[in-house]
Amino acid sequence: MTTSTPGPSTATKTDLCLSLEDVTISYGSFEAVRNVYLEIPRGQVTAFIGPSGCGKSTVLRSLNRMNDLIEGCHLRGRVVFNGEDLYHPKVDPVEVRRRIGMVFQKPNPFPKSIYENIAFGARINGYRGNMDELVERSLRKAALWDEAKDKLRDSGYALSGGQQQRLCIARAIAIEPEVILMDEPCSALDPISTLKIEEMMHELKKSYTIVIVTHNMQQAVRVSDRTAFFNAEAQDGGSGKVGYLVEYDETERIFNKPTQRATMDYVSGRFG
């Protein structure tokens, strides 16, 4: 059985944002991913890559307890955020999701105006400042202000697919998280929209830690500072596959000088 093993520390304790310590995630009796050790530094973009079914989205969702919403999902090990175990019984998962925001694969704006898409989440999270300023600031950070400023009362659905995804990113920003998780945020978008989101990510990492799942190797190279490569192998007894972390390092090394043969085979297109 191949599993990830803890390598040398990749971040000092002062710039370490999130860490997974021997994390195994199961759906009922099925193990989706096993024995993951991973340290995610603050203020960088970390990419998760790997073939379908290797557990990378499952790991991503564990970082803000989105898997709690799936019946029968169970996590062993520890997910530590700013020194605190996110799965401690006293930790409020709603607060976790406020501090660690999420952007999904397909744009999912609320059935509200562009303005209310931003304001709604901020309002229910107790924001007491100037809402107009927050809406503008969030849309600017998501590189959408110039396109949306004259139609803030229009439905979010009136925007194009790429604009809707940037609206969802602005919505996540508005509740002032520390981390933004992105699960294949560009997979449903055209190349121009994808480029805009990638450019925006370079700006956002000045203020946020970003973790992105992507199937696009070129995108991982363009946007990420560090890359984690996951793979999957047959479970004991042959009941499906279990994901595991093969290798994690600076993106340049993962794509140019990986230490594992499986990593080289994947990034060079020999499998996946």
What's a quick, concise take on this entry?
The protein is of the alpha/beta class. It is built from 10 helices and 10 strands. It has helices at residues 56-62, 93-99, 114-124, 131-141, 145-148, 161-174, 191-204, 217-223, 251-256, 261-267, and strands at 16-27, 30-41, 45-49, 73-81, 84-85, 100-103, 179-183, 209-213, 226-234, 241-250.
Roughly how many Å apart are the termini? 20 Å
What fold name goes in the CATH topology slot of one domain?
Answer: Rossmann fold
H-E order: EEEHEEHEHHHHEHEHEEHH
Q: What multimeric state do the chains show?
A: single chain
Broad CATH class of one domain = Alpha Beta
On the 0-100 scale, what is the average pLDDT? 92
Number of strands: 10
Note poorly predicted spans.
1-10
The largest sheet has its strands arranged as 6-7-8-3-9-10
What's the Cα radius of gyration? 19 Å
Q: Roughly what percent helix?
A: 25-40%
What is the overall shape? globular
Beta-strand content bin: 25-35%
> What structural class is derived from the secondary structure elements?
alpha/beta
Architecture (CATH level 2) name of one domain: 3-Layer(aba) Sandwich
* H/I helix tally: 10
Query: CATH homologous superfamily name of one domain?
Result: P-loop containing nucleotide triphosphate hydrolases
Largest sheet: 6 strands, mixed
Structure description:
The chain is of the alpha/beta class and 272 residues long. The protein has helices at residues 56-62, 93-99, 114-124, 131-141, 145-148, 161-174, 191-204, 217-223, 251-256, 261-267; strands at residues 16-27, 30-41, 45-49, 73-81, 84-85, 100-103, 179-183, 209-213, 226-234, 241-250. The strands form two sheets. It has a six-stranded mixed β-sheet, with helices on both faces. Strand 9 and strand 10 form a beta hairpin. Helix 3 (114-124) runs parallel beside helix 6 (161-174), helix 4 crosses helix 6 and helix 6 (161-174) runs parallel beside helix 7 (191-204). 43% of the residues are buried.
